[in-house]
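Posting for a labmate who doesn't have an account.
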Amino acid sequence: MSAGPLVPLLLSLKVAAAATVLILPPGVFLGWLLARREVRGKSILETLTALPLVLPPTAIGYLLLRLLSRDGPLGERTLGFDPGLLLTWRAAAAASAIMALPLVARTARLAFERVDPRLEAVARTLGLGPWRVFLGVTLPLARSGLLAAAILGFGRALGEFGATVIVAGNIPGRTQTLALAIFNDMQIGRDREAMVLVGITVVLAFVAIWCVEALLRADRRAP
């Protein structure tokens, strides 16, 4: 029996929120690094960051599965204890975070590129150190774009399927997100229930994209 749309909806929101929290710091750092620093191997770093956009999600899921398996680099035999991630909502969050990384990093990069470097230079001439310049000047000026990055990452994590199903499975009430519930209902011929879930995902995606566009419009109007 289906538990209705509420359970997979709440689980999806939980997974997407955790994935966003997980990927936002490295995504913002990568965006800043690519926007503000000329580092050796930058083109390789850009390519690796964008890789989840073009790799099949199932490939990402399989690599993550090997990484977390018993004999893998982050498995029980290597660490000396069982991290207990596989077939849990935490594994779904990790997979979703990896798939959301390109969107977060790219949007953060665009946000930092819109910040006038001259303002940062003026702050440094006033005696502010690198961290104070970043926290007091760069971040506030990029805040709209960074918030857009967080929303896009959340939306991408919310709709993840391929990587999630490999590392977390499709367990109702435990790891079955909206995307997995849609697939499950479609497989067993529950078309009406599947359409309800599709409708929920469309509404969530619409709200997320509308919020991002509103933030970007406000940022363009800002002096």
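Reply:
Got it, the structure tokens are right above this. DSSP finds ten helices and no strands in the chain.
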